[in-house]
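Hi everyone, sorry if this is the wrong subforum. Our group has a chain we'd like a structural model of before ordering constructs, and none of us has done structure prediction before. Sequence below.
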Amino acid sequence: MSISSIELGRKLLVGDVICPWTSPMEHRHLSDPSVQEAFNHNFRFLGASLSTITSETGSSFYLTMSPDSGSIEKRSREVFSTIMRNIRPTMEWLNIFMTVMHPDRVILGGEDLRLSDLFSTVSSNVSLQESLNRIPRLKGETVKKQLEHLITDLKKEGILMDLNVTHDIYRFTGKIDLINEYLIFITEHEQIDVEDAAPEQQGHLL
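Answer:
Right subforum, don't worry. Here is the predicted structure as tokens:
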């Protein structure tokens, strides 16, 4: 099957992360240095370029915008502001998943999550249930429903993908690696003045 450069370009422009788990053929295509050069040439007039994020489990591609790219700078700032506003719920679900999978390190793209393991751990851990209740959209539900809604939301965001629907097994995509990078950046720049981000949201993230 041939790769449509136009369709791939559209995915990158809307913020998709191209990783080997969700888009193996497109990822293989972008791994070619000549293809990367062609994409960067075409994106140059937008002030954008391909970036790579690499973890122990693999690498992923995404688009970054130059701070000198006018309206794109404004859009980048808006994206960053959104991230800052959602820091707390993001840290809550990351804490839950890390406790279930491996508390000693971050979650990486390509790692698998079983709903049964998630439910078993959270249902017997009051602290994790409190974390779950602190995620605004999940209040007022049973633990099972909360976890199902959380997984549905993360699938919509492209952070999780179905691996085995029958057994409720999911896989983290390359987007989780990008989130890890965002969080590292934010913790290293705690005093950044971001519009609409409350001061208490900018510290003690990890």
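For your construct planning: Residues 192-206 have pLDDT under 50 and may be disordered. The beta strands are 48-55, 58-65, 112-114, 160-164, 169-172.
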